[in-house]
User: Fold these one by one.
Assistant:
Number 1:
Amino acid sequence: MMRTWQISTVTDAARARIATARLAAAFGVTPVERARLAAALSGRLRQCLTKGGAWQLALETTGGRLHVEVAPSPAAGEPPWHVTVDCPEPAAAAVSTGVTDDPGALAEALLGADEDTAVVLDRLAEQEELVAFHREELHQTNQGVLVLHAELDAAGRAQREAFAAERAARQEAESARRRLTFLADASAVLTASLNHEEIVRRLPELLVPEYARTVDVWLFDAEDDRHRPTTQPAAAVVAARTGRPQYAADHPGGLPGVDDQPPSALHPTRPLLCVPLPTRRAPLGVVTLTPPGERWDPDDAVMLIELTRRASIAIDNARRFEHNRDIAKTLQRALLTDLPTTPGLRLAARYLPATYGLNIGGDWYDAFRQPDGSLITVIGDVTGHGLHAAVMMSQLRTALRAYAVDGGSPGVLLTRLHTFLHHLQPDLYATAVIARFQPGEPVLTWAAAGHPPPVLREPDGRVRTLDAKPGAMLGIPLRQEIADHTVPLVPGSTLALYTDGLVERRAQGIDPGIERLAAALGGFRTEELDADLDGSAERILDPMLSDSERDDDVCLLLCHVDSHTVPGP
């Protein structure tokens, strides 16, 4: 729709303005927009009237918009003024644009409309400023809220990350504590034994199933055993030759300090960890393990390598101990005397090595004749244990036999041994008891040096402890003359010489043990001792040692005078 008005006077301007306002209202222009349109149009019309001349106002509605244009008529080279507003709703009916013809009324209406419009516009400006202020305040508030939310979100993420890091650190610390505890406990188990076969047996029991599915221990029996053909995995052979742990699988293990190898032909579907058993000289063997799952955790692998190293030390120590113990046993048994045969006097001896630790080598017994026909019986104990004690025992035994060639009573022989040991080994001591049986004399001569006292059983079953004042230990830095003692010796009597391993108990001392020995010896009948002295010695040992861990050697020498004869030449 297109409408035009010719404007040359105030009345024409008023009519055109009123018509424009009515058309804008009819086409649904909002009151605010209508007020703005009226104010803008009024200002333009005033300018036109001030300039003078004829002007044309054109209204056109197209596409939901109202176009207003004011231009000179006819065209005077001045550009037209125009404005456009939206029309939300089309006119529902024809709009009457008729206006009153009264010029005063028109002018008054125009001026009144301008004044109303100005007031409305002032209020709208105030409201717009207030709205703009609140909008800015709301925007700032929204920005602050967004920043606060961002900070809270960042703080929440940081807190979650801190919690996750704390949980990871706690789990790692717990895993490390678990591994260290296991390593300490397993090491204590392995080092508690001095039997290398028991250590090898316990190692798989410790590792399966938590840290390994299977454990195979390959020990070298000889120096060149690792170079001989073997059915061990190739990685185990490489570990034996290089002394470095090897990992054989179809994928790299990435384990610290471990070399990667191709999969084993013997076990192609399972990863293998082959760890040598190191010593200062060469590996003792190789431990081959398979993982409890798909693969090992690197920290678990490090722990397994360390445990294997400790197991190697335990096995090496056990082998050394067994070697030294076997040497001491062999030396000591080689030095134990075959007891001589004497008419009217029976001898029976028993020697039992310790079953706990390397407590072998210090105890000995001996029996031999002097040139005058007397029979010397001796039992002794060198302080200390092991190979050194066995060697010293052999030297004392040899020295005693040499001194006895020149004769001399038990006290004299012990005094010479004391001087010999003091000069030979100032820091080594020994105890001993020597008893001499003289042919044709019913007297027993004996002497003791720091040793448990002999026990004498008389034919009627009474038992005496020969505890007359003994000498001090052999080898102490003290000059001493060890005295002889005598006691009547009648047919049927039995003398028991022994070492402290038979009677001494740590929790009880030595006196209760001597009383038990006396009771055991007194329980025999003379006929039993006459008939089977060896069997009687066995029957004494059984009850005496039943409650003992036997952490020391045991020696027992029984000397029995036949009940029908007296010792003769």
Number 2:
Amino acid sequence: MLNHVNFIWNIAESLRGPFKPSEYGSVVLPFTVLKRLDAVLADTKAEVLNVAPTVATAPEMLQQMKLTEAAGHQFYNTSPFDFANLVADAQDLRANLSSYLAGFSSNVRDIFERFEFDKTLNKLAEKNKLFVVTEKFAQVDFHPRTVSNIQMGLVFEELIRWANERSNETAGDHYTPREVIALMVQLLFALDDDALSKPGVVRSIYDPTAGTGGMLSVADEYLRRMNPGIQLSLYGQDYNDQSYAICKADMVIKGQDVDNIALGDTLTEDAFDDKKFDYGLSNPPFGVDWKDQRTYVDGEHSKLGFNGRFGPGTPAVSDGAMLFLLHLVSKMRKPEEGGSRMAIVLNGSPLFSGGAGGGESNIRKWLLDNDLVEAIIGLPKDMFYNTGISTYIWVLTNRKDEDRKGRVQLIDGREMFTKLRKGLGSKRNELSPQNIETIVRLYAGFEDGEQSKILRNEDFLYRTITVERPLKLNWQATPQRVDAVFEVKAIQKLSKTNAAALRAALDRLSADTVWKNRAAFQKVLKDAAKAEGLALAAPLLKTVTTELGEQDDTADICADVKGNPEPDASLRDTENVPWDEDVDAYVSREVLPYAPDAWVDHSKTKEGGEIPFTRHFYRYIPPRPLEEIDRDLDAVMDQLRAILVEVEQ
């Protein structure tokens, strides 16, 4: 494998000058795919060329059926060219390559179109590099008898890694660190080793944010090591043209179904809306808004509800990561059909953002109510190429073991890392094989300890109650309060006559008198207005009463028409009550001792879910003794004095 990689990368190094190192991948990746497909189709090439003229006028579906049957693969090429006769005609090489590419079936031709391979070929021809590159690739033996699908996949993955490392762009948009993928994959399969190692096993894996296919490749490699005979189907979707091309090419090279990799925005164009999968993996974009998808997503949420993907709710438009989480859950098989397990990398905000009744909280509560959260693993910071923020792996499943039902496992892996000798973008740390082994062991062991916490689903649920205090006001017609009345828009809309009458009425009230009963004050106010020929309609009376009033704990309670106390909005507060606790008992203990006149407005109670990960692993570190701090300060001061003495001398 390494020989092939080195040979191909030597071809890339020969491009230095006309091509930048960041552009090498645009040459060697599509050429590697082209050479592999050329070798794969070689044995049936003659049969395809014989069949092609006989179906030239047939309907398209019949053509495809006959030609794929002749090729023995899900793709074919009807061009008479192959690498051998391409390099035999150096003068017409550029035109012949175009003819050769056009001969592929549409499901493979699409790969080269998304690579924008035509542009690359034009540049190679312009810089007199096309023949040299084509001739060197013609020398490589990529026939399946020589290089298996697994070996070819490893070659291509290594080339992708090399291309990413030499790219001037940050790899984070399309590339998840290999060791993070390895951890996710091992978590995904850790509890299923026995079932997956049996003969005749058939499984499917899906990545809705496939990028260049790294997660699918690592999962494929891991499972085939465990069980070489496993029948594994890999599915993926991505919206970036080049990432899609690389991923699809990688799957073709591995012998996977070429149609299982789709191009498009997963949130608005679910390419596999009729499929469910055994396993799922995803590293969606962190902190990226979904404004462009909002109309579609909100429409699906309102029209389909829980029959669609976003029934529990939608997160804040500033971060769409939780939409991918819900999308993954929608791809789970029913428990009676074997169920599914999914792993997704998210930043910290999906754990706690949004209050009770908000989209994020509703999503968390729905996941917990349905017992879908199996584990959450905190990763070290500085793990990804384009961000240094805290990240977490969520493991979701609808087929929990009996002892895990109703439970969520939190694993603290934030301090399990190895420092990189040289940072790559924002990436400063990596997971060593020992770190991965430790985390997977903690997950599989499912025991409560310092780095692993086992909690009930209910421990993350709560109710937000609204605590009201009675409205108590006093009224006084001071110049300042009266002026405030006339600054209100509703008062400013009065006619000059009515405004003058209102001011005259207020002037009748003694500035020294303080009323502490609303009914008594309003009677005096209405009498004063009547004396000025002004009828105080209910809205006007309410406005004047509100603006002249000030909060006063010694005043009488303001009651409604039924005699119930009115709440004071300025004193309104909320409390989060743990799910298992009685609200009345909580209020008696936490509220009434400090506000005996308070009550709960139960009509405003909201239910929510929050996962305060760091709180469960908090360890109190006592401060150093004052004597020790004083000694250190004295020592520093002594050093400063000594330096000053030296300067003065």
Number 3:
Amino acid sequence: MTEIIERPAAAGPITAPNWGLTKFLDPLRIPPVLRPRGRETITIPMVVQRQRLHSELPESTLWTYAGHFPGPTIEVRSGKQLRISWSNEIDGEFPLAAVQGPITDGPASRPGRDLDRPGYSIIEGVADLPSWTVVHLHGARTNAGNDGWAHNAGLKGTSQLAEYQNQQQAMPLWYHDHAMAITRFNVHTGLTGMYLVRDDEEDALGLPHGDHEIPLIITDRNLDTDPATQELTGQLLFKVPALPNGTLIPFTGPFNLVNGVIWPHLDVDARWYRFRLLNAANSRFYTLNLVDENNVPVNDAVRLIGTDGGLLPAPAELPKGGLTVAPAERFDVLIDFSRFKGRKLKLRNADPQLGSIEPDLMEFRVDDRAKHDPFKLPAKLSTSYVRLQHGTTLPEDHDHVWVALLLNAAGHPEMWDLQQVDADPGGPGIIQIEDPNGGLKTFRVNGRLFDDTTGIFIDHDRWAVWNLVHVANGGPAHPIHVHLTEFQALFRRSFTTTFDQATERTTAPISGFGDIPLEKYEEGWKDTIIVRPGQWVSVAGQFGGGTGEFMFHCHILDHEDEGMMRPFVVHPPEVAKFHVHPGGGHHHDAARAAGREWLGAG
């Protein structure tokens, strides 16, 4: 275990370019691949590992899956069941140093604890955390008992036996820790990895594979410094800004990593490659461009062929300005390097945000020799894809779920699931929305914290439309993830918000709706979607493949830990008829009433 230095860091930012680290020095690390055979149980231990994040750094102490950061890439065939025993074998102290500093001083932009600077302090309790872990396979359709319920974490010496049916089309899932209230810290230690489902439809496309199919797991980190020399120590540093009222801003760090390496390079042949892209950062949104030696975008060499939930119907170009990837989003990306023989390209972030100084992520070094490439970009990808349309591919008989995203009276982000009421009862916790076709909907908050009353119940195999309404005047965008299902975005709308933060309610019905065109890739299957302030995003998914109590939440891990997570239940419809809710009626009847059509929500 690396000694955690408690002496204050020297005043002032580290001014050496890239803090003394050479960009693009180290090769990209490729996680090992596990390909289990059929119905079997494999054990994946969680263990302490010392690993260099850059060859010019000392080793960092990490918590890992099977000794790797990121963890092994698990590959399975669609329909082939797999059981995994996630074994907690983590010894020693918590490997993060956690510090907060005043937002006006820009603490996220530089390494070191800065404890000699005004307003900086240790975040109490983080150093005392035990190895308390639970694994969530993000995007999996599985029973709730296998889903990684946040309260069901276990201490060292215990195992979590999870069964994954893999009754899903080819798609990129990922696994990570999900322990209640400390997910942001546990994931930050290194507990993350990729999980790929394969099927015949994907195989038939002849996509680049083997050495030409590579995961790119993007994260950001901060590191401590030696107070005497200001040299980086390799110690992971969870350093966050604090607002004057004490609210902590989610973590961002000055070092971008790909596959656990700071600013790596990858030697590539002059041919097509397939990259399985994952944003595994705590909170950072990346807007990615492929650029040449002069930082000029060459995105016309890039095609998107898939999203969180599998293949798109046809290849799509990158959006103008680059591809924005929120935490937990995955993209299946093809790059044609054949026109760049002997050149160097970079993956570059055009949206630096708070705490980022270096926009470059990694470098591609293209071989100068021509390569025979059997792959030809097809005009059509997924023949099984169906675009959801109301009344046809989306059944008319479906449920509605309403969720409000907001800033509460204290200025902290919250997520409310809503219950419709007949009239405004007055007081806080009320959201009113005006129907442009006439009429008014009034909702009251049902739950605002994870352990509040469960208010969402959906019949197994039933379709549900989730209406995600970001009513805050400003504040952050939220990547909202719903467990158990893949969904399609039906629409994205802007509106004029009247939510009053001080009274925690709308002062007049929300109105002034305008359609925002969806990006072509947003029509694909997803399980995480960005909702920005003043936007209403409607998504539709079918809730099959598992039953029990699941979670939906913001995938900014700091927000999730601090309250932006709520439960919902999927149960057989035959059981729902007998399940009495706190108001006295039956959940089955309440769900039908909530599904009435209005506002074009379907």
